[in-house]
Amino acid sequence: MKNLLAIFTLILLTIGCSSDDNSENGDEVTDTRYKLIFETDGSGAIIGDDSNMVIKRLFKYGYHVTFNFYFNETTNNFYFSSLSDTSNDLVFHKANVLDILNSDEYHYPTQEIPILISDQEHLEKAVIDNNENIYLVLEDNQSSHIYFRKIISNQIVENINLSAIYGFNGYLDIFYLDKLNQLVILDEETNQINGVIIDLDTNAMTQISLPSNLNIFNIISSNSEIYIISRREINFEVFEYLYDIHGNQISTLSDFIGGSAIGYDSEDSRFEYIYRGDGRNEAGIINIQTGELDKSSINGEPGFHSSNLFFFNN
Asked: Which domain of life does the UniProt lineage start with (predicted)?
């Protein structure tokens, strides 16, 4: 009888272990959607959107990215501005993230797109959109006027004097909102923050004014709304806040994300971030209305980041 009981117990344990193994295999995450971030030298990381696992590191030798990174979710091409491989001219470098994901090459190759700027101009910002139209914000070295320039098919089609229209003549903060294809230009050398939002699809310009004490860290957007991330000190304690584009406070963030790679995932209709530094190596979701962060750890080493957070499917 004891032998029968022992055999029965062994059978139950075997079934239980088999069930646990199947459960673990069933919980294994297979990513078909990915996050993409970059560093200032053109390197970066591809991270599984569901698993938060670093799938692949991207490497680019000897580059210094002068402005930001741009990503086309339709073609999966990304762009960054740096010196040409063959001259000292500033150009946009172009590559395809799916080609890199499926390649065994250590350093990824790029194609070059020229940027039209003269020696008499100082470039403040260079943006390239999904149609590969180029938009420049630059300062004329002789007059110190700020210009907005639009380039299509290597031809200058717009060259607007923003100083003459809006009085821009100081230190500019410039943010590109890829979901809206809009450019936000802010002049902070006055008692209030004066700015303009340029719709790059229509060339429509909307003037805005914001309180001077916002201390803007970043400006982000969904497919329809624009938000400001601000950091302020109150009673010797530092907080981060979310505002709308009119300067109205929405929420207080539960942790600092001002230095994060932030992006809007159109498929999940939510803001996500990746934070690397200060002992934190995390991915998370931002609740705009409450300021709460839903945090998860990253499996692997994503490196540091200096770009927005982008999303793509394989």
From this structure: Bacteria
